[in-house]
Specification:
The chain is mainly beta and 112 residues long. 0% of the residues lie in helices and 26% in strands. β5 and β6 form a beta hairpin. It is globular and about 45 Å long. The chain starts with 9 loop residues before the first strand and ends in a 17-residue tail after the last strand.
């Protein structure tokens, strides 16, 4: 096993980037699971300053219901700001909320 490079379980493409997802093994449950990037611990952004997020991330104070007249969701996947590029079930997406957007060098009018 030493020196072998693990192959990605799946590669998700979103916001002009590719995110490889690897399987990790849980000894307690005796099964493998996909380990998605932790964008809360290590934030990453699109070229326009929009943050990447996983559908399972806990929602932020700016979340909005994906369906009008519904309560705010508890995770990013149910938020109306969460943009999935390929399918409605993509686990990685881009937060389109301007309040969460990072200021970019090219546009001083971007929100922080």
């Amino acid at each position: 096993m030493g020196g072998e490079k693990q192959q990605p379980y799946k590669v998700y493409r979103v916001g002009g980037r590719s995110f490889p997802v690897y399987l990790e093994y849980d000894e307690q449950f005796d099964e493998s699971y996909p380990a998605y990037p932790d964008f809360e611990e290590r934030p990453e952004y699109t070229g326009e300053g929009r943050p990447f997020a996983t559908a399972e991330q806990e929602s932020c104070p700016h979340c909005k219901p994906g369906v009008p007249e519904e309560p705010p969701p508890s995770d990013c996947g149910g938020c109306g700001w969460f943009y999935r590029e390929q399918t409605p079930y993509d686990p990685i997406g881009v937060c389109m909320c301007d309040a969460m957007r990072r200021k970019t060098k090219g546009n001083k009018e971007d929100a922080v």
